[in-house]
Write a structure and sequence with these properties.
Elements lengths: L15 E5 L17 H15 L3 E5 L16 H11 L3 E4 L7 H6 L5 E4 L12 H8 L4 E4 L21 E3 L1 H15 L4 E5 L4 H14 L2 E4 L1 H10 L14 H7 L5 E2 L3 E5 L8 E4 L8 E5 L1 H10 L5 E5 L12 H10 L5 E5 L1 H9 L8 E2 L4 H8 L4 H4 L4
Amino acid sequence: MKLKDIKQIKNLTGKRVLLRLDLNVPIEKGEVPNSGTWRLERAIPTIKYLTRKKARVIIVAHLGRPEGKVMSEFTMQPVCEKLSQMLGKTIEFWADDFSGYIQDSEEMSNGSVAMIENIRFYREKKNCKRLATRLSKLADIYVNDAFGNVHRQDASMHAITYYLPSYAGLLMTDEVNYLSKVLKTKKGLSVILGGAKVATKIKLIEKFSKMADHVCLGGILANTMLKALDYKVGKSVYDKDFLALAKRAYNAKKVHLPEDLVVCKNKKSKNCQTVEMDKIPAGMMSLDLGPKTIKKYLAEIKAAKLIVWNGPFGYFENKLFVQGSKSMMKGLVKLPAKVIIGGGETVELANQLKLSKEFTFVSTGGGAMLAFLQGNKLPSLERLKK
């Protein structure tokens, strides 16, 4: 897929650029914690590129799910302050209705940056054309660098492209280029899938069991597959709606299931044990992969040329059940293969372990990454194609 990107714009001097970013970061006590800045870091290269070209940059982004209502806990102001600090450049915050800042946008100095309030305070989720029309009056050019939101057909992602010349940002271009390589890989591909999004990932198992050498499973996805194959899973969480599809997607030669699992009575329990995958006690639930499974998975994919991982193996909300994912991540960086990871919790773990820079590429998309790999048409992305 070839996109119209910002490097193709011949002259940005003095142009007002409406820049859509994915800045949906955690807020703690009214601030963005240092542990939650990775999305902000990934936004900086495109901002710097545009300001170096003397564009006037107006950032639009969302935070949380205010559902069309103005809610103070979802204000973009702390995000604006943190991004200003990281950028080393003042970003002016336009706190009120952005329609009142049209003249301000025209009076911005070249190379300056502003940020409007949370776009989800408006009819963003309805892909509202009236909202897009109002937004378009702030700018001359639209740039989308919010890959993590590209699978959604929102006003500032999709409708806006009908009112302004539209281009992909640097991150968006990288995301598409790297993930496209996965789909083009014919030999030496291995895929690791965990987490809780069974509906999407079951379909990916079916797809990659045909084109990849290995597909390794963890999390609720693995539980669902085990249940579909008539294993006793005790009280383990699985998705009963996708048992038939899971059974159909299973390929014994390529799809790898856990050999051992960490089980407890409940998600808060501290008294756990590791058991064989076919010996889960009736009153226990699987909450992480065991060490034998991690060793097996790493052995299976050691000859891979390209590895893709989306979704943790355990119940991520409890630190007791992150060990399987940690061991896998530490093992992956020792392999000679190129490795692409994605999904919020997977990326969060890589950042905690300070291993992000060890991977070939870290995708900012969770659901967007899955949708792209599934081969789904993403309307907001289609609007950026050449």
